[in-house]
Amino acid sequence: MPFDVDSFLRDAVRTPSHEDVTAMRDLVVETLEGAGVETSVDEVGTVVATRGTGSPHLVFNTHIDTVPPRVEYRDQGDVVYGRGACDAKGPLAAMVQAFLAASPGSGRLTLALSPDEETTQVGGATLAERLDADSTVVGEPTGLDACVAARGQFEGSVTVRGESAHAADPDEGTNSIRAACAVLRAMDTYDEEQGPGTHAVLGRPTLVPSLVSGGEAINQVPAECTIRFDRRSVPPETAGGFVTGLQRHLRRTGPEGVEVSVSLLRSDIPHPEAFRTDPDARIVRSLEDAGAGETRPFGAATEASYFAARAPTVVFGPGVLADESGPVAHADREYVDRRDVERAESVLRETAELFLQ
Q: Which of 9, 121, 175, 218 has the fewest CB atoms within 10 Å of its CB?
């Protein structure tokens, strides 16, 4: 059955995948098998299809889940609106068409789709370990640019522990919320004193306190306060190194009389590290020769991090994270231009044939 990229894009955006990806996964599997390509779904829920058996091995990866809330599909000329239109069902549509149309030559082309990029990212990390790719293209809204680097992202918490007391006699306790003010000031000095510095491509890291909670009753000195943070890292910093470094810094420069500890919010899931692919890598040159735009960093953390730890990886796709009017991806005005999806497919197909020849 011939593949119609426009129909697939429409069906994909109309299929909700912000709470459960089952229907979206079924759509992809039915589409691929309808085109005569055998697919597999592993225990994590990732979808894998391969054409060719030789070497080199190129992987096209993107994700089938979206963030909430649901934004319904609507069509306006060449523009498709709806949740996932650019993140990442537009890139998905381009990749599916390129995967089906490209000739793998003597090499091997794999389409690998993860189910949880917007949440735990277990799927992408698992795929990166299993696929043994020579290079990977990760589908995200890059405006058709070839993005060869991205900052990492770690979410964590700083816990400040003092001592509870009655609010009528506050000197008998140690107020963790007051101490947290000093901890916040110390967090502001971390990168200047202990951080990895400014990266030549990705710039400076950021450390943003984003949620604060503490206390149990209005008339009680709070014994514990928690500061949650978002960390955007640059090389050579790692998640483990950052946690150790920040805790050491806060204990050295923070308030006395309290215990301060730092941890990642989820120690049982992967955390995307910062990465940078050599601009002279074969996959980058192939994308450039196929007509991709500017070679630059990507503005968000993605599953590309896991693939880049093993082989040269580039983020590429139709759509944009934001335009002149504001946010696009994850916003209630999310959209993708059909012409960009078609252009992305052409670039991806030619890239595969150049890389695999």
A: 218
Phi and psi dihedrals of 323, rounded to 5?
Answer: -125, -170
- Beta 313-316 vs 152-161: how paired, if at all? unpaired
Through-space distance between the first and last CA atoms of the chain, rounded to whole angstroms: 27
Backbone angles phi, psi at 75, to 5 degrees: -120, 130
Q: Is the peptide bond before 270 cis (omega within 30 degrees of 0)?
A: no
> Please, what are the averages of pLDDT over each run of 10 residues along the chain (357 residues)?
89 97 98 96 96 96 97 95 98 98 95 96 95 97 98 95 96 95 96 94 96 96 97 94 96 91 87 94 98 96 95 98 97 97 98 96
User: Quick check: 66 and 318 in contact, CB under 8 A?
Assistant: no
Q: Is the pTM of this model over 0.85?
A: yes
Q: How far is CA 65 from CA 61, 117, 250, 286, 322, in A?
A: 13, 7, 37, 28, 19
- CA 135, distance to chain mean position in Å, is 18
* SS3 category, 212: strand
294-335 confidence digits (pLDDT tens): 999 999 999 999 999 999 999 999 999 999 999 999 999 999
**DSSP string covering 221-241:** E-SEEEEEEEEEE-TT--HHH
The domain spans of the chain are 5-150+274-356, 152-264
Percentage, residues of the chain above pLDDT 70: 100
Within 13 A of 223's CA, how many CA atoms are on the CB side? 5
Q: Under CATH, what is the fold of the domain 152-264?
A: Alpha-Beta Plaits (3.30.70)
CA triple 80-81-82, angle to 5 deg: 130
Q: Return d(Cα 83, Cα 102) in angstroms, integer.
A: 28
Superfamily (CATH) of domain 5-150+274-356: Zn peptidases (3.40.630.10)
The beta strands (E) that lie in the chain are given as: 39-41, 47-51, 57-63, 74-76, 79-81, 108-114, 135-139, 146-150, 152-161, 165-166, 206-214, 220-221, 224-233, 259-264, 275-276, 295-297, 313-316, 322-323, 326-327, 335-337
3-state secondary structure of 138: strand
